[in-house]
Specification:
Layout (H helix, E strand, L loop, with lengths): L1 H10 E8 L4 E7 L7 E6 L2 H14 L4 E6 L5 H6 L5 E5 L2 H11 L7 H14 L12 H34 L13 H9 L3 H5 L3 H10 L5 H13 L7 H37 L4 H5 L5 H12 L9 H8 L4 E5 L2 E5 L6 H14 L4 H12 L4 H22 L5 H10 L3 H8 L1
Parallel strand pairs: 1-4, 4-5
Antiparallel strand pairs: 1-2, 2-3, 6-7
Helix pairs in contact: 6-11, 6-13, 7-11, 13-15, 14-17, 15-17, 16-17, 16-19
């Protein structure tokens, strides 16, 4: 990767710092031999941006043009990604802020000056920055599908948490009668019987029919629920509390099915795209990955095998690797907070999912807990270990084989192999 990046740097004949905004983008342009950078602005329309990029190509018909900008997503970034003569450097906003503060301790911010700071970063420190290296179109599509699906899941979780809190205030008994709040049964129950008074008026035969229609087949559970409904007493009978709460709860209940349908649609599209991906067998082979986590692991590491040279780079980029700080005689190790959240979540959640399906992962996790580490700290340690395995399989284009890995542990006389044998 370093040789590839060095070649790109040698081909760059002009550098641009581009500060994006909703209406217009300020830029600073510098080419070799110019005494001062050239400034300007371009409107945030596709026509204006395409014209601006075309003019850059006319002025610099040979070689590549480096552009530094803050964001890595959004319309501006997507438009610039089309052109192979542009080398894009996506700068972390925190990194830009620190760079700006180094020369402006007052904290003042100005868009043209930010464009100048971005330009300075790639003019003076390009050797320390990583250019954007695109994945293939299939992987980019899969990445957005998995991220948008996760966003729908997060929004549904927020709604069910809000609904739980609301029901606890005026109808807490319902939480033990309606099952999963994201389910169709919960929504239909609260639509049909929004209050305790309403459900107490329902006949036992009506309730039994309702549960049967919603695939709740346990006679014992149904009878227990019916008995609890008959004996339940309201926490409040104040209409000034109940009526607004019912209206708010109904509003939430109506939104959840929309998100459920969206998630199902995303699942179908992800399944189709993932099934056609050349790396699907690699990522489907990891224990516990399943139809949700396997595509997320794939997009977290990408398809461009020139992007990373060793697993450590993935561990650091994802935020799974801790941060070490040394000053004088002191040394601290802490969790890495500046990280791509979706990528970090993907590796973390996969590590958790692998525990029931992978004996060595379960033993390793328990060993971390026995050392006094918290649950999430132990999961991050397991994810750190998994990334090395995932990276190796990805690098070799070979699916994961459990026995091969265990044999490697035994060959290295790993303590984990001894624990696994005695487990």
């Amino acid at each position: 990767m370093e040789d590839c990046e060095r070649k790109e740097v040698q081909e760059i004949i002009a550098c641009v710092g581009l500060d994006w905004a909703d209406q217009k983008h300020d830029f600073k342009l510098q080419a070799p031999g110019w005494p001062e950078p050239e400034g300007g602005e371009v409107k945030h329309t596709s026509e204006s941006l395409l014209e601006w990029v075309g003019l850059l190509r006319q002025r610099f018909p040979e070689g590549k043009i480096a552009i530094a900008l803050e964001q890595s997503r959004g319309a501006l970034a997507y438009l610039l990604m089309r052109f192979d003569f542009l080398v894009l450097y996506f700068i972390n906003p925190k990194g830009l802020a620190k760079f700006r503060e180094a020369f402006r301790v007052s904290g003042a911010k100005d868009d043209p000056d930010d464009a100048g700071c971005l330009l300075s970063m790639i003019l003076l420190h390009r050797d320390k920055l990583r250019p954007w290296m695109p994945d293939d179109p299939q992987t980019r599509k899969l990445r957005l599908l998995t991220e948008y699906r996760r966003d729908c899941v997060d929004r549904r979780t927020a709604l069910t948490n809000q609904l739980t809190s609301m029901l606890k205030n005026y109808f807490p008994q319902s939480l033990s009668w309606i099952g999963d709040l994201a389910s169709t049964m919960a929504g239909d129950f609260l639509t049909k019987w929004p209050t305790l008074d309403a459900v107490k008026k329902a006949r036992p035969t009506t309730l039994r029919k309702f549960y049967h229609e919603h695939h709740s087949r346990s006679a014992e559970v149904i009878e227990r629920r019916i008995g609890e409904i008959a004996q339940a007493a309201p926490f409040t009978e104040d209409p000034s509390i109940i009526d607004p709460s019912v209206l708010a709860a109904q509003t939430i209940v109506q939104q959840i099915p929309v998100l459920n349908a969206a998630i199902e649609t995303f699942d179908q599209e992800i399944k189709a795209v993932f099934a056609a991906h050349p790396d699907r067998e690699i990522f489907s082979s990891f224990p516990g990955a399943g139809p949700v986590m396997a595509p997320r692991l794939l997009v977290s590491i990408g398809s461009n095998r020139d992007r990373y040279q060793e697993a450590k780079e993935v561990q650091q980029f994802s935020g799974i690797a801790p941060v070490t700080r040394r000053s004088g005689n002191s040394k601290t190790i802490s969790r890495r907070l500046a990280r791509p959240v979706f990528v970090a979540q993907s590796f973390h959640e996969f590590a958790l999912h692998s525990i029931p399906f992978c004996p060595w992962a379960a033993v390793y996790y328990q060993g971390q807990r026995d050392l006094g580490k918290s649950h999430h700290c132990a999961i991050r340690a397991l994810a750190y270990k998994w990334i090395r395995i995932i990276f190796r399989c990805w690098q070799l284009r070979k699916p994961y084989d459990e026995q091969t890995y265990i044999n490697a542990l035994i060959k290295r006389n790993s303590p984990l192999a001894a624990k696994l044998k005695s487990a």
